[in-house]
Amino acid sequence: MRIVVLGATSRTGLCLLAEARRRGHHIVAFTRRPGTLADVPAPAEVVHNDGRDLDTVRAALACADAVISLLPGGGRRDPHLAAESARILTTAMADAGVRRLVVVSAYPIVGVRPRVAIWILRRVLATPYADVSQMERIVSACDLDWTIARLNRLVDRPATGAITISTGLLAKPRPHSRADSAATLLDLAEDPETARSALNISGS
Questions:
Q1: In Å, how far are 62, 72, 83, 93, 119 from 98, measured between CA atoms?
Q2: What predicted TM-score, i.e. pTM, was given to this entire model?
Q3: DSSP strand E in the chain: where?
Q4: What is the pLDDT of residue 1?
Q5: How far is residue 55's CA from residue 185's CA, in Å, rounded to a whole number?
Q6: By percentage, how much of the chain surpasses pLDDT 90?
Q7: pLDDT band per the 50, 70, 90 thresholds, residue 38
Q8: If you compute the radius of gyration of the chain from its CA atoms, what whole number of angstroms results?
Q9: Residue 48, exposed/middle/buried by CB under 10 A (0-12, 13-18, 19+)?
Q10: N or C: which terminal CB in the chain sees fewer CB atoms within 10 Å?
Q11: Burial tier of 198 (Cβ tally within 10 Å: 0-12, 13-18, 19+)
Q12: pLDDT at 40 over 80
């Protein structure tokens, strides 16, 4: 598959690049920090852009089979990164005729347990959570084959393959590795049966 990846040099993005290479996918990597790719197997193509230039995104989508966006919610200096990129991306995909889209979101925006931890996270991360919530609304309203992947807390450890995926709230949300998350995102991009769904994901 030819897969366009936004946020490719995030820690999870780097895991995804490695797994995609292992699976034989052709990756077009969007990044604001191309130097970060120096120590990893190079993707087939690198685009130095944050995913908010319509012409650049549209050009990168030529002949693409799927798009995976790992862009985070914005911070104080750039509070609308995820939502703005989602608007550009969904428009560009519609223009280019590319239908498969997987976007990363955050499970705590819908989670209720553990209550204290969720309450703290929503206060501390109010700006990025508001941004990814808006991103979800933009994506779910578009006429594409989208999947929203709400990830629980990510940790830097080896893959175990122990992942829980649910359309409902998670009974016991657990941390999961970035490597497992990367593999799961690729699985979703490869599987059209998960289209038009928001999935909550944690370790098992």
A1: 8, 22, 19, 5, 38
A2: 0.96
A3: 2-6, 26-31, 45-48, 66-69, 100-106, 145-151, 154-155, 163-166, 176-177, 197-203
A4: 97
A5: 26
A6: 93
A7: confident
A8: 16
A9: exposed
A10: C
A11: middle
A12: no
Per-residue pLDDT band for 184 (boundaries 50, 70, 90) equals: very high
pLDDT (mean) for 178-191: 98
C-alpha span between 132 and 81 (Å, rounded):
9
Which CATH homologous superfamily contains domain 2-203? NAD(P)-binding Rossmann-like Domain (3.40.50.720)
SS3 labels along 23-50? HCCEEEEEECCHHHHHHCCCCCEEEECC
Residue type, 14: L
191: which residues sit within 8 A by CB, 6+ positions away? none
Do the Cβ atoms of 32 and 7 come closer than 8 Å?
no
Give the number of residues written for the chain: 204
Q: How far apart are CA 141 and CA 122, in angstroms?
A: 24
Domain borders along the chain are 2-203
For residue 33, the model assigns a pLDDT of 86
